Each structure stands twice: as C-alpha cells, then as structure tokens.
Amino acid sequence: MRQICVTGAGHVGLVTATCFADLGNQVTCVDIDEAKVEGLKEGYLPLYEPGLEEMTRRNQQAGRLTFTAHHEEGVPQADFIFVAVDTPPGIEGEADMTSFRLAAQKIAQCLNKHAIIINRSTVPIGTGDWVTNLIQRHNEKTQFSVVSNPEFSREGQAVADFMQPDRIVLGSTDTAAAEKVASLYSSFKCPIIITDLRTAEMIKYASNAFLATRLSFINEIASICDQLGADVKQVARGMGLDKRIGTGYLEAGLGYGGSCIPKDVEALTYVAAAHGCHPQLLRTVMEINQDQRRLVVQRLREFFGSLEGLTIGILGLSFKPDTDDMRGAASLEVVHRLEVEGAKVKAYDPAAIPIAQRLLPKVQLCPDAYSTAEGSDALVIVTEWNEFKQLDMERIKNLLRHPILVDGRNIYEPEEMLALGFAYCGIGRGHLKETNQH
Ligand SMILES: NC(=O)c1ccc[n+]([C@@H]2O[C@H](COP(=O)([O-])OP(=O)(O)OC[C@H]3O[C@@H](n4cnc5c(N)ncnc54)[C@H](O)[C@@H]3O)[C@@H](O)[C@H]2O)c1
C-alpha cells in the first residue's frame, strides 16, 4: 500500500486525499486549520462537493484516510507528498505564495527519507525550481524529487473530474519520479503527459487563460451582435458545431468568475510582464470581462435614466449554478454598481444566501424569485440556476413595478418575453427591446 501525504484540506486537497484513499492508498491529510481538522475527524466536511462526504466517511472508517494538523504525523512516512494549499491573488495580481512557502518549509523540516514532493496548487511558472532550492536549503541531508501535477477539476464536479480526468499532466526534471507519480493514476484511462516542470506549470495557466479567452471572445462578439442585430446564442451554436471550435465556454453573459480563472489569468499576465513579455491578449480578456459586469447598469440606465431610488431585483448570487461559492462572482460587482447609482437591491439565490448575508449587508435577501420580483422596478438574472429557467413569467411580470427583464445569462428567449409583454434585454441578442406597455 502506497503512503501518501496531502498538505491542505481545501477544495483540491480534500478531494485529492479522499480519492487517492478510495483508490486503495494510505493517505494522511494535513491542514494547519485545527478547527477544520477537528471537524473532518468527526465527519464534518468544510465544503460541499457531490459524493465527497460519503466517500470521505467510507475511507476514514476503512482506516485509509486520516486527518491531522501536524505535518510531523503525515510527512515522514510518506513516499508521495502532495502540496494543495491556497495561492490567492496578491495586491498586483501575482500569486501570493505565502501558504505554499510555509507548507514547503514544514515539509522540508519533516522529511527524513526520500520522497516525491508533488505540487498540485496553481503556481507561477518556475515554482518547481524555486521549491527545490527552498527545500534543499532547509534540509541538506535528505534526497527528494519534485513533480508538478496541476489540478484541472471544476468545483461542483471535483470528485468525478478527479476519477475521470481528461488528462494527467506531470512535469519534472526527474523522469523516474514522474513515472512513479503516473503509477498512482494507472487505473485511469486518460492520456498522461510527462514533461518538464515549467511546461507542466504553464499548461495549467494556459488552460485557464484559454477558457477565459473563449468567454471574453464570445462576449465581444455579443457586443457586436447587439449593435448589428444578430443573435449571439445562435452564432455560438453555429460556431460550436464546427469540431475545430467545439461548444464549451461559448456562452455570452456577464463574464467569468470564481476562485480560479480570474486569478490565474491575472497571475499569468503578471508573471509574463515581470519577464519582459507584453501579454496584450490576456489584458484585453480581463478588460472585456470587467466591461461585461457594467452592462447591467448601462442597460438599466438606458431605460430609466437615473437609477436613484429604484429597487432592482437580482436572481442568482453565486459565481455559477450549483454552488454557494461567491468568490469572484459577477453579482458582487453588479450589486456594487447598482448601489453606487443609488438603487436599492433585493436578491435571491438557491444556495448562497448565508454567504451573501456577510458579503452584501445592504441587500434585501428574499426567500424566492417571486418575492424578489415583487415591487422591484426591474429584474436582472445574474446566475443561470436551473430553477430560474422555468419561472412563471406572467406572474413575475405582474409582481414587477415595470416589466423589465435584463437576462444576464441569456436563459430566456427574447421573442417569448416580448410576447409576454416584457421589455427584454439579453447579452448579444439585440439591444433593450421595449414593449409599448411601459
Ligand atoms: N478550487 C478549485 O476548484 C481549484 C481547481 C484547480 C486548482 N486549484 C488550485 O489549487 C490550490 C488550492 O485551492 P483550494 O481551492 O483547494 O484552496 P482552499 O483555500 O480551499 O484550501 C487550501 C487549504 O490549505 C490549507 N493550508 C494553508 N497553508 C497550509 C500549510 N502550510 N500546511 C497545510 N495546510 C495549509 C488551508 O488551511 C486550506 O484548508 C490553489 O492554488 C488553487 O488555485 C483550485
């Protein structure tokens, strides 16, 4: 049985630790957050991922998965040590490596036999070399290898993504070490790419930057569609059916969010500029994303003139459906801009209300979509939750003070909404379409 230590019990670390235990390995997961570790020992997960709670409990009961707040209890016996700690954005958009540096130092202090240290966090290109030097400085006696193994899973599907990945990427100067790490994934059918450290680190950043680029691309096309009277939803479908293009990440809307894509595009831009490159495409991708957030206020201003004293209803606060995560969510900027314009905001989200209470203290949080619409001057869809796709729109229209719908995720059809008497405005589906009822 292989001995694995995972440092970090967050979204990535906990899924990595649990899934490796489920594959039959002996796993110790170390996190410096003692409260989190105590909770995990008692079966309380600090986050929601479909299937994870049951899998964690099953492997704890089988004795293959343990949690500790002390690196000394996980690192020394491990053959494989994964680093899955947070690398949040710093003040200039760079990756803040504080947690990573502390984790690497702790590992160095506890290392007493050869082990493979595997980086799973998203880190700047060159980190593999940097961490090798750092560990050597803190522990001159023990031999070790460093492998980069970036994580590509999506929140909300992380267990399935771990168990059925599209590809495994491994980077190292030590090919034998990379092959040993590859053996941990030998039951998977996907391609395994073994390359050098910097290339592996770049594959992660380039993948997220490309997804962001597709979204900003289609949002730029959406702006042009708005001016020229084309429908971006059909344009995206017509494009996506071309096998060279594909359908994913071509939804025009209020832009990308979350805890990964925005920070990774920023960090790649920062590291590129710091090395004398001119990352103009990446800068434009970020600029377009910012512009998308402004569309809601722009559209409402075109309709009402001033927003002072109006009440605007928002449907959806999480950064994407099926999660309560509001990190990098479009809703935060939309609400901020509406409040700056003097509007009052009412909002509903199927999962994020407890988090929104803390992040959006001035917003009136409602128990459902209908109470959000009631008495609002206009309704804005910010997150495309399934439960917003089949609302009783006749009822919604009657509850609103004005039948104005800004559909920031294009979940309704303009013609149907116009037929119901709404003034409808999607993204890239023709400019604010008015009814003569207003
Ligand atoms: N969240 C995702 O879906 C996702 C996907 C791909 C890649 N990533 C990347 O993976 C990394 C981790 O992301 P996350 O979402 O799991 O972060 P997270 O904030 O959810 O979890 C990080 C955990 O690391 C712990 N930690 C910090 N310092 C530590 C140390 N010295 N020793 C042990 N534990 C320590 C923290 O207490 C926390 O529990 C980041 O680099 C992120 O960019 C995340």
Give the SSE map:
Elements: E1 3-7, H1 11-22, E2 26-30, H2 34-41, H3 52-61, E3 65-68, E4 80-83, H4 98-110, E5 115-119, H5 127-138, E6 144-148, H6 158-163, E7 168-171, H7 175-184, E8 192-195, H8 197-228, H9 232-240, H10 261-274, H11 280-304, E9 311-315, H12 330-340, E10 344-348, H13 353-359, E11 364-365, H14 369-373, E12 378-381, H15 393-399, E13 404-407, H16 414-420, E14 423-425
Parallel strand pairs: 1-2, 1-4, 2-3, 4-5, 5-6, 7-8, 9-10, 9-12, 10-11, 12-13, 13-14
Helix pairs in contact: 1-3, 4-5, 8-10, 8-11, 11-12
CATH topology of the largest domain: Rossmann fold
The Cα radius of gyration reads 24 Å
- Main-sheet strand order equals 3-2-1-4-5-6
Percentage of β-strand residues: 5-15%
Task: Pick out the low-confidence regions.
Answer: none
Shape: elongated
What is the typical, i.e. mean, pLDDT? 96
Topology pattern, helix = H, strand = E: EHEHHEEHEHEHEHEHHHHEHEHEHEHEHE
The CATH homologous superfamily of the largest domain corresponds to NAD(P)-binding Rossmann-like Domain
Structural class: alpha/beta
How many structural domains can be distinguished in the coordinates?
A: 2
Measured distance between first and last alpha carbons: 70 Å
* CATH class term of the largest domain: Alpha Beta
- Bound molecule kinds, no repeats: nicotinamide-adenine-dinucleotide
CATH arch. level architecture of the largest domain: 3-Layer(aba) Sandwich
The percent of residues in helical segments reads 40-55%
Give the total of beta strands: 14
Tally of DSSP helical segments: 16
Largest sheet, strands/sense/barrel: 6 strands, parallel
